[in-house]
Backbone:
């Protein structure tokens, strides 16, 4: 594969990472909605299941933020590499 082909492949990968980041932002919005609905519905509940669900939703928000950042930084690194070719 020549340099042009490599750059094109990197560009497609970068676009895929950007698309994945946008998709994850949508998922993150859905997680936040679920968290808010859970908090509203079970605001005074001390049931262990409710507490576990709330904890898991907070973890999912944290992890989705991490995935978004990893996709962004991976795409940035790939673009930097392509620009140096």
Residues:
């Amino acid at each position: 594969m020549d340099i042009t082909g490599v750059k094109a492949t990197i560009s497609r990968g970068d676009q895929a990472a950007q698309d994945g980041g946008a998709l994850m932002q949508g998922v993150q919005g859905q997680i936040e909605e679920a968290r808010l609905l859970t908090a509203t519905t079970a605001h005074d509940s001390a049931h262990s299941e409710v507490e576990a669900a709330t904890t898991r939703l907070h973890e999912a928000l944290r992890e989705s933020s991490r995935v978004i950042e990893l996709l962004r930084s991976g795409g940035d690194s790939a673009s930097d590499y392509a620009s140096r070719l």
Summary: The chain is about 90% helix and 0% strand. Residues 18 and 72 are 7 Å apart (CA to CA).
